[in-house]
Amino acid sequence: xxxxxxxxxxxxxxxxxxxxxxxxxxxxxxxxxxxxxxxxxxxxxxxxxxxxxx
Length: 54
Description:
Blueprint: H1 5-53
């Protein structure tokens, strides 16, 4: 069951496309988590500051 050059090329392109899609998804996920972390930190800072003023 030998693969032709064309099939090998198509498989390689499919793997590359999947890798690109995965990297893009991971980047989006990472940025979303980073934004959430920054929001939590800002909220904690604001809560701490308002407590100090009271």
